[in-house]
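Take a sample.
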Amino acid sequence: MSALLLPLTGALLFAIGNQLSRLALRHVDSQTATLFQIGTGTVLYWLTAPLYLESWFWTSPALPLLAAIGLFRPLLSANLGMAGTRILGPTVASTLSATAPLLGVGLGIVLLGETLGWEVGVGTAGIVAGVVTLTWRGRASRAWPLWALLLPIGAAFLRSLAHALAKIGLDILPNPFFVALVAYTVSFPLALGNDLRVRRKRVPIPRAGLVWLIGTGLAYSIAVLVLNTALLTQDLVVVSPIVACSPLFTLLLGRFVFGEQALDRRVALAVALVVPSVVIIGLR
């Protein structure tokens, strides 16, 4: 079960980032939050780069592949996710986003040639069911076009594709830090350019908002590093479903740390589905 510690830690860190981003969004818009998230991670990686980098990394055949990750993750995937939430509403968007572990397992099998044992299959199904249980809020009226369903699914696919490409890159250059550094370095100027293109007026950021923005960026960037480290040692079909448990951690943190809504039967059912599912995957 010690092999599950890294992906579970990654899921927890993503959940912390989710909670901090909610606090940040009380002070800034989502576009500013995304820019600061990517920018904080980029600065963090470059400040610590001398501890982890070697000159030959920049001539590795994995470099173009790692740079390609930064073209769509996290900027494009985050924008697709936000667009899906805006058009479909949080209920439908978050439920469709729960397909991420299924997509991750599929890419692991198709692109990486990994095998799907019964443990991973049953565990993935249980985790998806648990996440859907957490995010579903009853019937939602349909006032949106069918094509909008592709937005959250597309965001989930891009996240899973980034994990698969990172896994391939790690097989060539086994340095989780460099994988994250390259992706963030490519993504940040794209995010900055997009922000300058669409923003007509710069709104001052209050000090409290700045604190939460930096905290969000630190949590997400460390989570990505932990995730890459997990991919270095584990198959994608194992890591992807476990990292997808982050909505459960987000809700539990909201209740016990951030003082949000009380737990109900829906949460208890999700816990009853997710926890045994993670254990079953650990049996592999």
